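Exercise (ungraded).
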Amino acid sequence: MSIRLEHLNYIYSPKTAYEKHALKDICLEIPHGEFVGIIGHTGSGKSTLIQHFNGLIKATDGKLFYNEENIYGQGYNMRKLRNEIGLVFQYPEHQLFEIDVMADVCFGPKNQGLSREECEKRALEALKLVGLKEKYYHASPFELSGGQKRRAAIAGVLAMRPKVLVLDEPTAGLDPKGRDDILEQVAYLHKQTGMTVILVSHSMEDIARYAGRIIVMNHGEIMYNDEPKKVFAHYRELEQAGLAAPQVTYIMHELREQGIPADTDVTTVKEAADEIIRALEAGMPNALDDKMSKSRQMEKEK
Amino acid sequence: MIRDITIGQYYPAKSILHRLDPRVKLVSTLLYLISLFLFKSIAGYLAVTVFLVGIIRASKVPFRYIVKGLKPIVMLLMITVVFNLFLQKDGEVLLRIWKLSITTVGLRNAVYMAVRLIYLIIGSSLMTFTTTPNELTDGIEALLHPLNKVHVPVHEVAMMMSIALRFIPILLEETDKIMKAQQARGADFESGNMIQRAKSMIPILVPLFVSAFRRAYDLAMAMEARCYRGGEGRTKMKPLKYQTRDRAAYVTMVVYAAAVVAIGRFAPLQVWIF
Ligand SMILES: Nc1ncnc2c1ncn2[C@@H]1O[C@H](COP(=O)(O)OP(=O)(O)OP(=O)(O)O)[C@@H](O)[C@H]1O
Ligand SMILES: [Mg+2]
């Protein structure tokens, strides 16, 4: 069970002045159940790449296997593929069209040929998951705020119960709480149902917190494809690709330069805090002042 | 794919045609279009073909790209040809199928009409391929300027035209995106009967209209925020000015038109019925 790309190339508008080689020789495997983050500068080909996963864009060259089946093979059932791989587009709120939110979320399940009751059951479930308030279920999608629209649109894909969930910058333009809510829900789904999640994001912090593996895109090529801490170790190169490592990475490197033997491999704020305390304690136990040990004591008791 | 529609679009390249003054291109296109209807003979069409090939070469727009722009008119072309072919009763009968017959006059008219239409589209799309919407607006505005005297809002009309042209690719892109988003939710636009297919367009059309209105509104706001208030008293950063090459182009066009009409009317070339 996996998605596998072999030497995939994609060229927009070939043989014209608008020609754009958006993906260059992409080789990639995403096993089932992984949480993968994709990052890259604007125009690096992230959106193009993920649209290949459910066959919306056909590669100019190369192969794509889903569960070991070549999706470009003859008679391959694209609809079935799209039922299994749910894709949430960048700015998904632009796809809303029904009279009310409920009907819009039902659109996907309805296309899967499910009964009315089943559609509504799934829609309700999905709407709960994205945390849209109940009073909006029967409001027109065009009356909602941007963030609420976004939630409704994400629910529209979740209601299809995909095995693989691909999200293209689902949190762009949301407030911090909305962002955390949605990502937490996605992480929860990932844990609960074991679905594969592929998350495109510009935020290193978000990716570092949730993803088990990071794919870094740079000018249509895969630059890194590794565990977060290994990728962030290349923070200088990331900067050259127009990206940055999470802020904790910088803090840890800075600390190290200042002579505190902290491990620079940590990726989240919490890990960093633990690591700094550990390093301080191990390296110079006497340097810890009263306050510090007290607060540690308190944390331990908790 | 839907993005293949190229009619009315600009194609960036560096060619003499791209550098010409938009007024020259507009007038020339008009002259060219008229010239197509002033004769009816194979010699004339050969002359036009030679000219057109030369212009296409000079424009540096790939031939493939131009041909792609013809796709949307295929239907129109077929209808024209069929009507001309079967509804003409004059002339010698060439072929009889059931109650329909094809005559020499019918065949000739059909072929000429088809060629004219194709040349018409190629000629006018060459103009838009080599002229940015901005230049086009400036050109139209300058040419129609005299109409201001009879209270025609020339600037506004030209502005609207160029905005419309500018929005074609944006809306196509938007349509493409929305189609993909709905396909990702399992929408199917290809199968089913007429009614089902028409119904399957709703999930595309509603978001498309919503976004078109949103864009129009945003654009209006943005223009207002930059104090746009129509053409009155408006000056240009790059006023149009004729160069030597523009004058040369005018001369070329006049010579072309005269030559083509002369050849088309008087050259004694005759191939079969044409
Ligand atoms: N429909 C299209 N036609 C032509 N070129 C395109 C099209 N869509 C994208 N491109 C080009 O392909 C490249 C990759 O675009 P893509 O949308 O995949 O980038 P991205 O990594 O998703 O960027 P962002 O972070 O801004 O969303 C860009 O250079 C873009 O200009
Ligand atoms: Mg993108």
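Further reading is listed at the end of the chapter. For now, observe: The CA atoms of residues 166 and 198 of chain A lie 5 Å apart. The first strand of chain A starts at residue 2 and ends at 12.
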